[in-house]
Write a structure and sequence with these properties.
By secondary structure, the chain is mostly beta strands. The protein has one helix at about 90; strands at about 10-15, 25-35, 40-50, 55-70, 70-85, 100-115, 120-125, 145-155, 160-170, 175-185, 190-200, 205. About 0% of the residues lie in helices and about 60% in strands. The longest helix has 5 residues, at about 90. It is globular and about 60 Å long.
Length: about 210
């Protein structure tokens, strides 16, 4: 979808997760910049961070998207970085004898196809190469491959959506498949947006 953007855009967010934990501060931040070009598509740079007192996770991603008629093709190259803070537990755990951090590179591919001006379809494959992010030399902890597909229908100022995600990793001894429903509507001459989303685990609303 980055190939649809026609002017520079920047987005940023920060979440303080589970407020009230005291010293166990959990936070998540994100910043993204997209620079379109006249002939060569659009380029994006993203930085996402998760930090806790014992663990930090950072993702740096370079994205590219370009239109080919009604189709938009895109890819992400992601640098994945994790770091564990040393404490009394890591000092005695042989897992950390070879270091406290690890990194890897992951690739995402996607396509967005606009069948009509009001109906679009998307498909993405995330973590195509499934990098191994284990710390131990002989250990294996591969980032699971994820498939995402979805559809959106534009009905005036309202857009209902549905998408399905699949990870090739079991969750609670079951296949990790989830269905998401969403809706977005713009009011007051498109100056106020309302959104709602629902899946089998939780729901969210916002404005």
């Amino acid at each position: 979808g980055v190939g649809q953007i026609e002017r520079p855009q920047i987005a940023a967010s920060y979440d303080k997760l589970y407020a009230g934990l005291g010293d166990d501060d959990l936070g998540r931040g994100f910043i993204s910049y997209v620079q379109p070009s006249e002939y060569y598509g659009a380029f994006a740079l993203n930085l996402a961070m998760l930090h806790t007192p014992l663990y930090k996770e950072t993702t740096v991603a370079f994205g590219y998207g370009k239109s080919f008629g009604p189709a938009y093709l895109g890819l992400n190259m992601k640098g994945l970085f994790t770091y564990f803070k040393e404490n009394v537990y890591t000092q005695i755990d042989p897992l950390f004898s070879n270091g406290m951090s690890t990194n890897g590179v992951a690739l995402d591919l996607g396509i967005l196809y606009k069948l009509t001006d009001s109906f679009s379809f998307g498909l993405a494959v995330l973590n195509v190469n499934q990098p191994n992010m284990a710390i131990g030399e002989d250990a294996e902890a591969r980032v699971p491959l994820m498939l995402q597909t979805g559809m959106a229908l534009k009905l005036g100022n309202t857009v209902p959506t549905i998408d399905i995600t699949y990870r090739n990793k079991e969750l609670n001894d079951k296949q990790d498949i989830n269905v998401h429903f969403g809706i977005e509507s713009w009011l007051a001459n498109k100056s106020v947006g309302l959104r709602a989303g629902l899946n089998r685990y939780d729901m969210a609303v916002g404005a």
